[in-house]
Amino acid sequence: MRRVRAEILNTRKLGAYHSLTLVAPEIAERARPGQFVSVAMPADRRFVLRRHFSIHQASRRGGWAGTLEFVFDPRGPGTDWLAESKAHQFLDVIGPLGKAFAYPRRLGNCLLVSEEHGSAPIYFLAQELRARGKRVDLIVGASSEDHVFNPIEAKRLSQQIAIVTADGSLGERGRVEDVLVGMLDATGAEVVYAAGSRRMLRAVAELCIERRLPAQVAVEEQMACGLGICQTCVIPVIRKDGSGYDNLRVCADGPVFNPARIFWDRWMGDEPRTLSTPPEGFPVVSAWPR
Amino acid sequence: MRRVRAEILNTRKLGAYHSLTLVAPEIAERARPGQFVSVAMPADRRFVLRRHFSIHQASRRGGWAGTLEFVFDPRGPGTDWLAESKAHQFLDVIGPLGKAFAYPRRLGNCLLVSEEHGSAPIYFLAQELRARGKRVDLIVGASSEDHVFNPIEAKRLSQQIAIVTADGSLGERGRVEDVLVGMLDATGAEVVYAAGSRRMLRAVAELCIERRLPAQVAVEEQMACGLGICQTCVIPVIRKDGSGYDNLRVCADGPVFNPARIFWDRWMGDEPRTLSTPPEGFPVVSAWPR
Amino acid sequence: MAAVRHSLAVDLEGVRFPLPVLAASGCFPAGREHAGLIDVHRLGGVVTRSLTYGPSKGAPTPRVAETPSGIVTSVGAQNAGVREFLVEELPRLAKTGVPVVASIAGSTMEEYLRVASALQSEPGIVALEVYLSARDREHDDLPFYARRDVMADVVGSVSRLSSYPVFAKLPAFVPDVVEAARACVRAGAHGLTLIDAVPAMAIDTRTLRPRLGSALGGLSGPAIKPIAVGAVFRVARALPDVPIMGVGGISTAEDAVEFLLAGAWAVQVGTAALVDPSAPAAIAQGVLGYLKERGFASPADLRHRLRLDPEALA
Amino acid sequence: MAAVRHSLAVDLEGVRFPLPVLAASGCFPAGREHAGLIDVHRLGGVVTRSLTYGPSKGAPTPRVAETPSGIVTSVGAQNAGVREFLVEELPRLAKTGVPVVASIAGSTMEEYLRVASALQSEPGIVALEVYLSARDREHDDLPFYARRDVMADVVGSVSRLSSYPVFAKLPAFVPDVVEAARACVRAGAHGLTLIDAVPAMAIDTRTLRPRLGSALGGLSGPAIKPIAVGAVFRVARALPDVPIMGVGGISTAEDAVEFLLAGAWAVQVGTAALVDPSAPAAIAQGVLGYLKERGFASPADLRHRLRLDPEALA
Ligand SMILES: Cc1cc2nc3c(=O)[nH]c(=O)nc-3n(C[C@H](O)[C@H](O)[C@H](O)COP(=O)(O)OP(=O)(O)OC[C@H]3O[C@@H](n4cnc5c(N)ncnc54)[C@H](O)[C@@H]3O)c2cc1C
Ligand SMILES: Cc1cc2nc3c(=O)[nH]c(=O)nc-3n(C[C@H](O)[C@H](O)[C@H](O)COP(=O)(O)OP(=O)(O)OC[C@H]3O[C@@H](n4cnc5c(N)ncnc54)[C@H](O)[C@@H]3O)c2cc1C
Ligand SMILES: Cc1cc2nc3c(=O)[nH]c(=O)nc-3n(C[C@H](O)[C@H](O)[C@H](O)COP(=O)(O)O)c2cc1C
Ligand SMILES: Cc1cc2nc3c(=O)[nH]c(=O)nc-3n(C[C@H](O)[C@H](O)[C@H](O)COP(=O)(O)O)c2cc1C
Ligand code: FES
Ligand code: FES
């Protein structure tokens, strides 16, 4: 991880989202899909914590070489402040942080599932998978049309695509889960990647376990440091030998995890439970091709 | 007092000082020299308190009618923030606050003494006194040339002027006190007004008591509310009957006081004492023409 | 949704306020000069500055210093004494009809009782609030709250003497705020006010002096809100039937709702009201908006709505 | 001015740190992965996260919520246990030569003693810090600090058992922090660490849930600085010969100087180090700048420089 004073090269709006492109070659060179950056807030406000964003784009080559893009929808003091930032301002950025998605070595057909800003890392992944000759199909979900992140880009990146919005303003009305089985079957997916709400990630997990499909999901948890120091960002992950679980750090041990190993019942607290969950000692999917 | 959302009409720099002119007719109409305004800081920062500034100019007539000007040197988070403000921004302003300088009814020759930003209310007073046909002479003190507030304006407003800087970069080298006696004698001053450091105000007080000259001084004290609510801003003032003192609120009972009634020893704490001070029961100058 | 009649009135076991937001002690303008800035009819009530028996000159200046999201103040209970209050301030307040909670202080148990006696049967006053952070001259100048038995004794004696319902104002600064609250209630307190400003200090590194004339002061403002919410939550869970007024760092309607969810029956606004005397009224209005939007009928409705995971507090 | 040899080293009655700024407990990166972000040689020392005897899973998530100028956290002492620490973490730390203060915790007196025993005679460790906010399973789950005798008992027993100098880490949340400090010193504490995070809570008014999985947490960051400075000041005046490490809200060199003026012998940086692991080093550098500019020879020099008006604290 590097800490840099990064100049904002470009800002743009994409529906409900803001995108910031930074000049940060030290980070961009190393960045892989699933990793994130940590951005300092101005010291003269009430902010105490840095804010964390998935890397959406990291260019190593070409005219944009050394640049890094992240994307957010303004929804709190930190993202509101970032939404006001302008080109040529500088941000204090640490990255790349966390473990990236692993690329499948042997398998070919990849179904990528994203919701809301979860699309930011997923499209980055899509691009890298395509560059490695994989087939990529996409499911993109959101509350409404303007929260469907960059649908044009999504279409460009995928062989087949399903867009789902809660209010039906773009694509089908419903939830990502509703089209999951259909897309799995239609695309012949051999591997699944996902980023989005816990509810959706859990549905993906259940389905992949059922079908014994290898999967990786990027999760989010409230973070104080983002650097692996404080252990505030933990997620319960079942041990490989099934002997119990450990609270692993999303920021340093994740944010990408094997969804079959996440102890969903514990992590989701008393949120509505729609699915049965693995008990301690649950036999994990260890077929992941590393 | 009124509370208004006031648009910034104009900002300008004057040496070390920043001046803000606001559109605030409700306040400007009522404002008199010595009174002050209270300015809210942005809610999204660490600030909790409003900041307080003497009214430097309040125009009731002409092209600038309804405008209000105050002046400050950036020296802390609040004044730094204000220094960055731009025309057409809005400020949340309460005013006019506090008791104004009283104009002498019979007496004519007025010596006005100011230091640093104390010149802001003093020049306003000078203008009002001249409009009432009084002779105005000025002593203006500061640490260095750029802290001498608007010397050109000062010259325009006064019959005779003495400028004193600690480093001698403008006018005489020294302190206001060094020229006080000379100016009193030279101008035949019958009344003295002052605003500036406690040290200087105390020197003025001592001299005026000695010479039985009526005087008024504007003081500053740390304020939480500025509205007379909290009693954080008090100054010890000896009772008229000399029976002791009361802690009066600078914001509501002042900021203008008869310096002969201020219990300097108490107020100045353990700052260096260069002068003897009035004991409780000190015979106060009650010759003030009201 | 069925039409809900929203009401902002709250009933603290007999102490009624038309709105759930009061001005906290020391933070309400007593003077005539504020007529233009506030409308007392949009206030739930007014807690007076803490009254001593005789006049008190208060602490040396400076009395306020700003710190991150807070202020440290030390006014030292400057006030003109309870008699002056009865002659000068109360009649004006009573005339407006705003419910007045009289805050009482003392440097001995006896002084508390003398102040409470002087306030008996005054029109306008609906309750007493006992300020417990005053220093106890008979016990090493420690604050009254520092010894649980002394504190309970003061609260109990005032409660027995006075015909008004008595609220004990507790600082959060006791190792077990629940036990302290229980002791006050057992002694006869009708309710509790939580929390007082938190002991604190700020130093000027340029002048090498404390930024307050009295060196130590009390921290208030948004910085202490989480401390106050925590104290209210803990006490409300332990003593669900005891009326609590929540105070500490409230500056928005959301902040007030946080306290009501934590278990407060009403809230008080201090520092935010100093900076903007209309803040308590605006906050009450905002609470109404929240109730309407969320379909709650009244502030009291929020008291049992906090959703706790079974694992929390395990 | 005569040439002064400025030194940043501090000596806490035998416990020596090359710089006056340490990383506070729970806020120092233990892992290998941070090599690029910090240079331990620019740190006065490192306080470990609080170690329990066995591994502890810690509190439910979310574990952090941001509040005005502060954060409320509840990690629940998640750690792998003291043995794992000795095998995995300490050797790496010891190799760097940075002085290590081992923080110990427990849910019973016995656990404290077992942890302290396990740490005996380990290279690299220069002192123990006793975390006293842990909950005492044998006394109604109240924090150890809540009962002065229990607290003194823990501190005393650890001090007798251990060959390391022992610092008792006190919260400011005791009615009389001076008496609490005195009790710890009488029991055998070598020094004191002031203060721990302050009990607090934050509620999400949208979801009607506490913002932390454990509902209650500890407030840290700039918001609590005035509380911590006040506690250090009061204890340092009462116990001028007892080494104090000041902690709470320090994020700039000025903040650190405030603590040193208040009477701290060294300071620790918590929250600010989470957000920027290089903060403690930068703060130490800034303290050096301050000393030079003002003509002070060492951090210890500041300890007696606070200018108090005679009237303050009257
Ligand atoms: C690994 C990771 C990657 C992320 N990537 C993105 C992204 O690409 N685009 C995007 O829009 N958002 C992303 N988020 C969420 C984003 O970090 C938070 O929503 C954001 O910090 C909110 O800040 P705020 O001040 O605007 O809102 P507030 O809600 O006021 O934030 C208050 C506090 O809560 C924390 N917080 C709030 N929501 C979250 C969350 N979901 N996860 C973690 N902390 C949270 C904030 O960091 C802050 O400390 C990511 C989070 C994580 C952990
Ligand atoms: C009646 C009155 C009139 C004033 N008029 C002027 C003026 O015309 N021009 C000008 O430049 N300044 C004036 N001041 C001083 C000015 O209010 C403060 O210097 C300013 O608020 C500092 O804010 P800050 O955030 O920049 O500095 P900081 O020093 O960081 O302020 C921190 C806190 O201290 C308070 N404070 C600091 N210095 C003073 C002071 N001297 N008096 C009162 N409170 C203070 C601030 O309000 C704030 O609460 C006046 C003060 C008073 C009381
Ligand atoms: C300037 C000032 C004066 C205060 N005076 C009193 C007082 O006389 N009696 C009292 O019980 N509390 C007093 N308080 C404490 C407040 O009533 C309140 O408990 C505390 O400030 C926390 O609330 P806040 O954060 O909303 O200000 C005072 C607070 C301030 C800021
Ligand atoms: C995430 C986090 C974890 C902490 N863990 C511990 C701990 O294990 N033991 C301990 O004594 N203090 C712990 N603390 C408290 C800090 O050491 C420090 O006392 C407190 O945060 C105040 O300092 P600050 O404002 O600089 O953070 C922790 C604080 C934070 C924010
Ligand atoms: S956020 Fe601190 S360890 Fe992950
Ligand atoms: S500043 Fe509040 S009374 Fe003067």
Radius of gyration of chain C: 19 Å
Low-confidence stretches of chain C: none
CATH superfamily of chain C: Aldolase class I
> How many strand units of chain C?
16
Strand residues, percent of chain A: 25-35%
From the 3D coordinates, which CATH architecture of the largest domain in chain A would you assign? 3-Layer(aba) Sandwich
Number of domains of chain A: 3
| Hetero ligands | flavin-adenine dinucleotide, flavin mononucleotide, FE2/S2 (inorganic) cluster
* Alpha plus pi helix count of chain C: 8
How many DSSP-defined strands of chain A? Answer: 16
Distance between the termini of chain C: 36 Å
Bulk shape of chain A: globular
Helix content of chain C: 25-40%
| CATH topology grouping of chain C | TIM Barrel
User: Main β-sheet of chain C: number of strands, strand sense, barrel status?
Assistant: 8 strands, parallel, barrel
Q: What's a concise summary of this model?
A:
The complex is a heterotetramer, with 2 copies of chain A (290 residues) and 2 copies of chain C (314 residues). Chain A has 7 helices and 16 strands.
Strand and helix map with partners:
The complex is a heterotetramer, with 2 copies of chain A (290 residues) and 2 copies of chain C (314 residues).
Chain A: E1 2-14, E2 17-23, H1 25-28, E3 36-39, E4 51-54, E5 57-58, E6 67-72, H2 77-83, E7 90-97, E8 109-115, H3 119-131, E9 135-142, H4 151-157, E10 161-165, E11 172-173, H5 176-187, E12 191-195, H6 198-211, E13 215-218, E14 234-238, E15 245-249, E16 256-257, H7 264-267
Parallel strand pairs in A: 8-9, 8-12, 9-10, 10-11, 12-13
Antiparallel strand pairs in A: 1-2, 1-7, 2-6, 3-4, 3-7, 5-6, 13-16, 14-15
Chain C: E1 10-12, E2 15-17, E3 21-23, E4 45-47, E5 64-67, E6 70-73, H1 82-96, E7 100-104, H2 109-118, E8 125-131, H3 148-161, E9 166-170, H4 177-187, E10 191-194, E11 198-201, E12 203-204, E13 209-210, E14 216-220, H5 225-238, E15 244-247, H6 253-262, E16 266-269, H7 271-275, H8 279-294
Parallel strand pairs in C: 3-4, 3-16, 4-7, 7-8, 8-9, 9-10, 10-15, 15-16
Antiparallel strand pairs in C: 1-2, 5-6, 6-14, 11-14, 12-13
The complex binds flavin-adenine dinucleotide (2 copies), flavin mononucleotide (2 copies) and FE2/S2 (inorganic) cluster (2 copies).
One flavin mononucleotide sits between chains D (24-27, 49-50, 73, 75, 77, 103, 131, 169, 196-197, 220-221, 224, 247-250, 269-272) and A (224, 230, 232).
